[in-house]
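> forwarded from #structure-qc
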């Protein structure tokens, strides 16, 4: 006779309950060895035979976030492609082959301009002002010297411990005999650097490098009123280039000098001239190295710059200091009102300042070789000036030049 249901149930509890209790104890012990975050994962249970197995869904252990993944892979792939293109161009240049410039598209320029380079440059400027401990100065400056090939034997102070911060090191002065000023030629190089381009200005377009141009009017801005000019234009003409030429028979010339991070960072007066006007363009702070100059059309018109205009013995003369990434600080020694890379100025505008006043009807006279200003790091100097047709440049594109050496003469 079958045992009553109650007795069979009690017998099942005595046989099975100890095994289930042991199983739960083992599960609890195993889970206690997992890290805390994994123990909080939602668990999913399913039954197999008489055993209960707990698992965590695989998607909760590893979640692939598509947007960061695409940004990282796409950005890395694009950067790799650009580096390959630069390597290919360098190899072709070694073979003496001329490479047509491949310009950036509008979306590429817009993407680059969206990077907060002004904010990053201000942060870099503040970092440069931090005083370094005495024991740290030599290793930090030695690394910079080794990276960029700085010649400290030309510095007025060769002792690296003398420079309290990076800013002082960047703006170091040279020994007086390190840069003799050429007295024979009428125009000298205002700085150390590399010649990117030079020649006559044609059709109101200037070459930043061979084959890549920018608008003269966009770069200098609208011409000042005729009443403020030391010389009126030679003739009334709609061409902006013709508005700058003040004497019959003269031509307009330009020269672009790129300052690398390892170059001497101060710039000087390239000739005897008088500065009558300053125009400051707040703008982007994109890199201005030769590779970028070949890639972005009107690069110098996008970037922050300070345009000094005036006159020399042959008519119009201008010197423009162009800012770049980490070079938001452009200083003109005689202009205390100039504040570059300031958040109070918005991109796309410009502000003017005249050095011609009731007390000073001529402006600021500058002698050839006289200290004019400085950058916080490497950047670019652009000279645009008027001269007779027989003006001759003593240069080659791509050559290295030092402050005081000849640019050209009549």
């Amino acid at each position: 006779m079958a045992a009553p249901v109650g007795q069979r149930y009690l017998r099942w509890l005595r046989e099975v309950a100890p095994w289930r209790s042991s199983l739960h104890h083992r599960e609890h012990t195993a889970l206690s060895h997992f890290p805390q975050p994994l123990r909080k994962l939602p668990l999913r249970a399913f039954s197999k035979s008489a055993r209960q197995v707990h698992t965590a869904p695989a998607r909760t252990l590893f979640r692939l976030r598509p947007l960061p993944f695409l940004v990282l892979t796409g950005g890395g792939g694009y950067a790799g492609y650009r580096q390959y293109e630069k390597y290919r161009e360098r190899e072709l240049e070694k073979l003496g082959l001329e490479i047509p410039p491949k310009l950036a598209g509008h979306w590429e320029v817009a993407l680059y301009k969206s990077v907060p380079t002004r904010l990053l440059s201000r942060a870099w400027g503040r970092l440069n002002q931090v005083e370094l401990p005495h024991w740290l100065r030599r290793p930090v400056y030695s690394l910079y010297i080794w990276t960029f090939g700085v010649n400290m034997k030309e510095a007025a102070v060769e002792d690296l411990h003398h420079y309290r911060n990076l800013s002082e090191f960047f703006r170091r002065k040279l020994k007086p005999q390190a840069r003799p000023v050429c007295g024979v030629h009428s125009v000298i190089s205002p700085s150390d650097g590399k010649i990117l381009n030079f020649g006559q200005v044609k059709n109101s377009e200037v070459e930043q490098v061979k084959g890549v141009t920018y608008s003269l009017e966009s770069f200098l801005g609208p011409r000042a009123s005729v009443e403020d000019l030391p010389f009126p234009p030679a003739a009334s003409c709609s061409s902006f280039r013709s508005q700058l030429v003040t004497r019959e028979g003269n031509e307009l010339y330009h020269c672009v000098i790129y300052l690398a991070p390892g170059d001497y960072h101060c710039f000087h007066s390239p000739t005897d001239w008088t500065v009558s006007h300053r125009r400051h363009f707040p703008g982007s702070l994109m890199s201005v190295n030769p590779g970028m100059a070949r890639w972005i059309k009107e690069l110098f018109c996008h970037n922050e710059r300070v345009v000094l205009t005036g006159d020399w013995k042959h008519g119009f003369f201008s010197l423009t200091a162009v800012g770049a990434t980490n070079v938001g600080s452009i200083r003109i020694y005689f202009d205390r009102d100039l504040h570059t890379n300031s958040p109070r100025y918005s991109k796309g505008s410009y502000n003017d300042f005249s050095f011609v006043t009731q007390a000073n009807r001529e402006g600021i006279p500058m002698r050839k070789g006289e200290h004019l200003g400085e950058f916080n790091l490497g950047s670019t100097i652009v000279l645009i000036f008027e001269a007779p047709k027989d003006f001759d440049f003593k240069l080659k594109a791509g050559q290295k030049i030092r402050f005081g050496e000849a640019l050209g003469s009549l």
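QC bot note: The longest helix spans residues 66-94. The first strand starts at residue 44 and ends at 48.
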